[in-house]
Structures are given as structure tokens and as C-alpha cells.
Amino acid sequence: SHDSEFDYLKSVEIEEKINCIRWLKRISSAHLMLTTNDKTIKLWRLSPYANQSVSRVESSLFPRYNHTPRAHARRVFGNGHAYHINSVSLNSDGETFISADDLRVNLWNMEVSDTSFNIIDIKPTNMEELTEVITAASCHPSHCHQFAWSNSRGSVRLSDLRASALCDNHSKVFEEQDDPARRSFFSEIISSVSDVRFSPCGRYLLSRDYMTLRLWDIHMEARPVKTVQVHDQLRSRLCDLYESDCIFDKFQCCFSPDGQQFVTGSYQNFFHVFDRNGKGSTCIEASKNPKAKKSTPKSKLGISRSSRSSKEGSQPEIVDFDLKCLQMAWHPKLPQVAVGSLNCVYLYSANPSGDVPRSY
To answer: How far apart (Å, rounded) are the C-alpha atoms in residues 21 and 334?
Structure first.
């Protein structure tokens, strides 16, 4: 997809590592997707291509995957960002998308690869006055003029393109102040929002920082509807996490297709599925052979919820911080979740006949 490059102007190497993948709505037999590394965004077309030398994939879950896809780069969107791209989000009109780096958010047209419009710019005249950076951006699922973006100070901002072409002045801000009694040297680091997502209906926003997962109602800025402490048990180990750079890990989050559940990752190869209405949560280890949990009310994935609290062992006492689930995605229609850990991708699907989730 991407090759390593060298920025001669700044004398830095641009890695081929892919930061983000977004699928476009399918309009033909071929698939379209956007991929990006730190500097360059590419639009790919993947079309079916029969290949007799490749063995047929036999799976009840993927009955049509009996061919090798042929990939073709249709467009390359380059020279739009001076800083590292952290997120790409598709607009509901199907014609545009936004991309965000540390200081700017750009609006692109799918048909124009050499020009973008800058809609957010927080770069100060004097870089010594810089107090925050942009960490993520997401488009509204049905209103093409609205988008949300988050920053390193723990706030999520909602902007409207109808108000101004340059949306530096946000229309709404969602931020929960820290408890002064719990403030420490690490407070600013762990409050940085790593991901923000709209619910499928567009009514709610889901934000994830290092310690917590927050659900916001876009009509209520005062406080979040729901706050989940994902890593509260690690608060006493922040110094060790800082020395190992694990405190800078960026965990993603996403909604289920009906918006009633959301999922995020953690350490020790665990990921968590939470119910929006507080009916319980599920803690699952990303593994080829996930262990059965104690039978309790099930989520829509068909996975049993553990009744044990986090203090009673939802995560082991000795945590391997090299094993972590950072990337994940929920299927737009089916009860399936894809979870990335190290060099593996685990796909979990509902298993109505048993308590153990199916992993592929």
C-alpha cells in the first residue's frame, strides 16, 4: 500500500506503516477503501480476480472469498499535511472526507487529489505558545456539515461547516474536569483523547482516553451520559507506564450497528464490550481459543458477561503491556468484531449455541 519515503525538507524518514483504513460505500462489484500513512492518503479499488493457483478458502463465515482481490491505486492525496496524519473519516455525502494531523483538519473531494480545504487550524503564530494538538476527527453519520474532533487536553469539539468555512470556533465542547484531588504529573497525558466516534444515529459521541471511555449526548454538554473506568486499576502504576512509554498507547473505540453497545481495547490482549444502558459488560481475551466465562446475561455478540469486578480479576495481577488490543472495528450490519493485537487480527462472531465467542 505505502512505501517508505524520505522528507528532504525536514530530513526525516516517512514510514510505510499504515495509520488508518476506511471502507467506502460499495456501489459496484469492487470495493473502495482509503489508507494513510503519516503523510499520504491513497484511494484503492479492490476488484475480484480469479486465481487458480490459490487454494479455495472454505469457511461458512466467508463463503464468497474464493478469489484473490486485485488492488489498484486510483488516487493519491499527497502534500496536504505538514504533520503526521492521525485519522481519516468519510463524510455522509459519499463525495468528501476529512483528514486530521496534529494541528490541522483538511476537507478533501474524492475526485480531486491535488487540492484540499483547511477547515481546522490551531497552529499558533509562535510555536512556543502551543498548548494542545489534534488527536482524532470523525464525520457525522448523516449530516455532512457536522464533524467532531478531539485534542490532547481531554476535550471533544463539535463543529459545523454551515457557520464558517474555517471552523476554529467550535459550536459545542464536551469536556469533563478532573477531580483536583486526583491530579498528578500524569493527568495531562492520560486525559488526552485517542479516539472519537459518532453513534450510528448521530445522537451520541464516544471518546476514549487512556483511563476512561465516555459516552456523550450531543444535546448535553454538561457531563457525559456514561463514564467507564477501563484502566483505573493501573493508576498506581502510571510511573512505570511512563518509563516504558506505554502511557502513550492510543486505544480505539467503536459502536455496534444499533448503537446499543460499544467496544474498546486494553492490555493483556483483553477487549471490553459495554452496554449503553448499563446492563453489564463483557471482558474477552483476544485469542484463538478464548476461555469460557461464567454464564450471565449475554450481549448481542452472544458472549457471556463476567460477573466479577475488575478488582476481583478481570485482568491478571501481572500485566504484560506488550500484549494490547489497540485497533478494532465492528461490522456495519452483523454482530462481528475485528480486533488487532500485535501481528494478528481476531474476528469474533456471535455464537448463539454456547458461551464461548467464535474466533477466526
So the answer is: 19
